[in-house]
Amino acid sequence: MFFERPEGGEHCILVHLDLDSERDQEDPVEFEELARSAGLEPVYFLKGSRKTPDSRSFVGKGKLEELGALVRSEAASMVLFNHALSPSQERNLEALLKCRVLDRTGLILEIFAQRARSYEGKLQVELAQLQHVVSRLKRGWTHLDRQKGGVNLRGAGETQLEMDQRMIRQRIKSINKSLVKVRAQREQGRRARKRAEMASVSLVGYTNAGKSSLFNALTSAEIYAADQLFATLDSTLRRIQLPNYGEAVLADTVGFISHLPHKLVEAFRATLEESSQATLLLHIIDASNEQRDYYVEQVEEVLEEIGADEVPCLQVFNKIDLLPDQQPRIERDEAGRPSRVWISALKGTGLDLLVEAVSECLGEDFVNRELVLDPQQGRLRARLYERGVVQEEAVDDNGCWHIAIRMPRSDFDRLLQDEQAAG
Q1: What is the pLDDT averaged over residues 263-290?
Q2: The dihedral sign for the CA sequence 140, 144, 150, 151
């Protein structure tokens, strides 16, 4: 990991401004949850409003003085902004406040750095950190810039800065090479599952919606699940058995968040591709959250960005145990297909309905029927056995085969076309 910070114990001050220039405001409550998820202890939440951010320090002169006084009186070691700061704004604020300053993207990166456990996850987080920090590198060496100067002379700070930038570029290149291998391995695994005609079901949703709890409930796995943002970063795969369908692969993925930093979307593309290549998406929604409709929109935006918006999706409203008079149920669309399932992963209620709905959704792409083949169609019978799609077989008195098959509809249609072409 490029750099890691202590996992807790630091006092911090949160800053949020309502800006007329920002149409889509960040949520202050969610921001405080992010800070606590990073192991920090917010001691004050400074709020205000402005038409536009100050180009030098983001906040105005009065708020900056108030913020400085709070840092001193509360003995805060960090100030967090619920906004995106430019590198120069971060440098100026740190120089004036005499403490570390992080914007929303930096805070999310801190959480990711703490939570990544797998080799792939750590690589992806480090890549995002390096891409984020390279433009902010200068702040660490400004004191050296003044040691040497003059015409045709490079300052010691400039030399150190160039050396650091070169090391970062080399490390980014190395990480990208490693991630290429990871993506190749993932793609190989997906191709193997496709050859085996095994469907994949991917859990997606806003962070802390209960994806990992549901994953554990469906697979009897023991992956980490907690009531905090970004509790799980590493994609986990498990095989599950679905009634009236067969075997499928279930994937747990990293949670989404409003305005997920582009650096993280890019860095975690290998993991997120698990969703874009899935047969079915389960969009897990916290039914008890008042902002659930907004969170659904945010998840759908990320799915569109990673090319997963065309994958069939079943909405799963979780945590109904926190709502009064909510019973587990399946809701269907106009065509009678499952569109929503209401469950509680923690209590285990409604899981049988969810499994039923998933089996039904996946089964739409399969053909379950009995074929009657005469003795002259032995070639077609052999091809069915080669594909491993024969469920049962019986022979009648006329020597005809009665074969029960189950296979993907696309393969079945292609098989019929081949037989018709062969005449």
Answers
A1: 79
A2: negative
Q: Indicate the number of domains in the chain.
A: 4
**Same domain, yes or no, for 257 and 401?**
no
H helices, E strands: number in the chain: 14, 14
Residues 6 or more apart whose Cβ sits within 8 Å of residue 100: 77, 78, 79, 94
* C-alpha–C-alpha distance, residues 81 and 176, integer Å: 30
Do 66 and 161 share a domain, yes or no? no
129 and 254 share a domain? no
Q: What share of the chain is helix, strand, coil (3-state, %, to 5)?
A: 45, 25, 30
Range with the largest mean pLDDT of 140-144, 194-198, 327-331: 327-331
Intra-chain end-to-end CA distance of the chain, in Å: 62
| % of residues, the chain, pLDDT over 70 | 79
Question: In this structure, are 102 and 122 located in the same domain?
Answer: no
User: Which residues partner with 16 through β-bridges?
Assistant: 47
Distance CA 255, CA 298 (A): 11
With contact defined as beta carbons under 8 Å apart, do 324 and 167 qualify?
no
* Domain span holding position 272: 198-363
Cβ-proximal residues to 89 (8 Å cutoff; 6+ apart), any chain: 53, 55, 56, 57, 58
Is 122 part of any domain? yes
Residue type, 261: P
Q: Are the CB atoms for 94 and 143 separated by under 8 Å? A: no
Kindly tell me the sign of the dihedral angle through the C-alpha atoms of 105, 110, 113, 115: negative
Residue 3 lies in a domain: no
User: CB–CB of 230/308 below 8 Å?
Assistant: no
pTM of the model: 0.69
Return the amino acid letter for 43: V
Enumerate residues 6+ apart whose C-beta is below 8 A from 297. Answer: none
So what's the pLDDT on residue 154? Answer: 43
Question: Measured between alpha carbons, how far is 63 from 5 in angstroms, rounded to an integer?
Answer: 28
| Residue 386 located in a structural domain | yes
> What's the pLDDT tens digit per position in 12-61?
999 999 988 777 778 888 888 888 888 889 999 999 999 999 999 999 99
For residue 103, count CB atoms less than 10 angstroms from its CB and return exposed for 0-12, middle for 13-18, buried for 19 or more: buried
